[in-house]
Amino acid sequence: MALRIIFMGTPEFSVPTLRSLVDAGHEVVAVYTQPPRPGGRRGLDLQKSPVHQVAELLGLPVLTPLNFKAEEDRQQFRDFQADVAVVVAYGLLLPEAILSGTRLGCYNGHASLLPRWRGAAPIQRAIMAGDAETGMMVMQMEKGLDTGPVALTAKVAIGENTTAGELHDSLMLAGARLMAQAMEKLEANELPLTPQAEDGVLYASKIDKGETRIDFSRPSEDVHNHIRGLSPFPGAWFEMQIGGKAERVKVLASEQASGMGEAGSALDDALTVACGSGAVRLVRLQKAGGKPMSASDFLRGTPVSAGTRLN
Question: What is the pTM of this model?
Fold first, then answer.
C-alpha cells in the first residue's frame, strides 16, 4: 500500500524528489513550501517557489505558513493524518510538534555525508574545502540540526573542476532516487537506521557575502576551490580597472595552472593569475550587469595584459 506523505521543500533542488514520490504511487496529501517572495525584474511581483509551482501542476494542495508557532497550523498538519513527512531544503527548522506530527516521523534528504557538513550550505562548503566526494543521505529528523540517524546513503564524486552548480544538479537527482528507495523500504518496514558518528562533525554555515571576494594571496588550490564552490551563486569576484574605473568581475570557472609571480597579477594575456603559491587560469567570467562569457570572449572586449593587477 502507498504511504500518505506530507512533502516539505522549496527550491528547485526539492522538485525531483517530490516528482519521484508521486511517480512511485505514494499519496502526497499536502505540500508545504515557503510563502511567495518578491521577485521579477523589479522585485515587485510575488513569486511562488519552484516546489509550489510544480505542486500546483500536479494538482496537490499547497500550504505556505511562515512558521509553525500557531497551534492552528500545527493542528492542520496533524489533521492530514500522514504516515510520514519528507523534507528536502524546506527552509524552516521544524518544531517537535511537527517532527512528531505523523505516524512514522519526518525524513530529510541532506546533501552531505553526515556528520560532515551539517547545516545550510553543505554543497558549497564541501567544494570550498577541497573534498573529493560528498553525497546524499536520508536521515530521520530530530530536534538537533542534522543530527538524526541515517537510513540510506548515495555517494557522489567531486571532480577537480566541479562547480557548486554542477554538484547541486548531480545531488538533486541522486537525492530523488534515494528518497524513493527509502520510502519503499519504510513502507515495507525494512528501513535501517544508523546513529551518526560522533567524530568528524563539521558545520556548513550559510555563505556570507563578505567571504565572496577572491583572495589571490592564498595558494592556487584554495583560490580554485573558492571560485568553484561559489559558482554560479553568489559568485566569487575580484576588481580590476576597466575604462578607468574599478569594476567587479565574477569568476564562474577556473583551472589550476603553472606559473608564479606577485599574487593577483596576470602572468600572461590569457587570464592566468598568480596566487600566493601557484596560479589559476580564469575560464568563465561575468561583468557586473552582464552575461556569463568565456575567457576568450571576455578578453576580446576587455584585454588583460601581463602584469595587470586583479584585486
Answer: 0.95
